[in-house]
Each structure stands twice: as structure tokens, then as C-alpha cells.
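Hi everyone,

Forwarding the result from last night's run.
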Amino acid sequence: MKGPYRQFRQSVRAMLGLFLVFVMLPGCSTRVIPPAQPQQPVTVHLMDHGRHASLILPAPETGWVRYAHGEWRWYAKHETGFWRAVSALFLPTDAAIARGWLESVPGRGEYSPAIPEGFETIHSFSVEKHQVTALRSRLESHFEAPEKTYFQARYNLHFVPYPQAYSVLSNSNQVMAQWLRELGAEVESAGLLSDWRLQARDGPSP
């Protein structure tokens, strides 16, 4: 009985996962509304690469630091394929956080060798300085004594484990939305797709 029951549970999980996909995909763009009139404004950048996104924060010692999140085997190890995608989406798997250093932030349409995967667009906006400091301190804590590290030249990023498992309910876009909220931004409709839009408080940005 264990075999059929296990298959039944796996089928239920798969159907539930597919249901969540179809529910979440129609949300289209993820809208980001920056905080209004920061008292100590600091510019940050949300870089949309098409399949994933990076958050670029100021780093006085080097210029800028880029953070990203993803599934460990898919993103860090670049073990891709249909069944890996199914596993990454529908089953809790190991997650990773990535970090890379930048001397400068490229503008729209510019190529930077420090960002070899390129990007589709970049959204720049101001947030409170103390919130940037707090978020960067929290993200940096993952790199202090990691149990393992991996450098992926495809992205020019160093990866370490992220404590929260990767799943359809905790994917890279949802984690990025969490980081943006810690910076005081409002985030609406964070789903499976990396399709970010910056929206001013009085209407959409140009």
C-alpha cells in the first residue's frame, strides 16, 4: 500500500503545484512602489535579467554590491532541464543567495563584464539609508561562515546556502519582494515570473 499511496500523494502535490502556477502566472508584472520622500535618500537598483532579478545596493568600500536569490542546483550549479525545473518549482529544494561586486552600475542598454548574463532593464529609486544598512547587514550575515560556497562564472556571482527552502511559494521573485519591502517599498503581485515594473505613487513611471 505504501507504493500507491506515495504515488497518490505525489500526484496531488503535482496538481496542487500546477494549480498554483496557473493562479499566479496571470498576475503579470510585479509592481514596485518606492517609499515616499526618504529623509536620508540612498539610491538602489533593481535589475531584471528576464528569468531572475538582482538587487544592487551601495557598498562604500567597493562601489556597489549585487545580491540575487535562486534554487541551488538550477542557479548556482546551472543544472537545468525539464525535470530539474519541475523539481525546483513543485518540491522544496535547497535555495541559494548570491553576491557580486560592481565598480559601477550600468545604464539601460549597456553591457557590463561584471554582469555577464546581461539584463533587460534596471529600475533605480531612493530609499532610507538606515534600511539599506540593515538589509545589507542581514544579507551579508549569510556569507560570514557558510557551510559551502560556489562560484558560478556564468553570472560572476558567489553562491552560499539560503536558510529558507526554495519552492513555488518561496521563489526568487518572492524573496526579492521581501528584500524590497525591507527597504520600505510596496510590492504588489509578486509571482513566478521576473517581470518587474516601477510605479510612482501618483501613477506609473515613464
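The first helix runs from residue 2 to 24.

Cheers,
N.
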